[in-house]
From TrEMBL:
Signal peptide: none annotated. This is Response regulator. The keyword Zinc does not apply. GO terms for cellular component: cytosol; protein-DNA complex. It holds the Pfam family Response_reg. Keywords: DNA-binding, Phosphoprotein, Transcription, Transcription regulation, Two-component regulatory system.
Amino acid sequence: MTAHILLVEDDVKLCRFMESELGLEGYRVTVAHDGITGLNLALESQPDLVILDWMLPSLEGVEVCRRLRSLGHKVPIVLLTARDELSDRVIGLEAGATDFVVKPFNIEEIFARIATYLSLV
């Protein structure tokens, strides 16, 4: 069965690139461009993994992460952000993120992290 990835990213150009690359790797991808839509899709579609931007309209990614965890969801969450301070990493991990990737990133790194987390589920 094909793994389902929820991609929540408000940068349309980056989102299209990632959606295309993930699709080429064989993943089924659902996209949201804001936090509230991302949270609702995560709850409704039960993805195998979530790639979640930190800075999103309507609800920050770190808050989406907190809410998913508070509802008992164990889905792996890879938090994307341009924020690279140690305190930001701690905030993201304390919110329940499985991993933290700093922008700009190499898509191969994302693929490796996805493969690792999907093998654990």
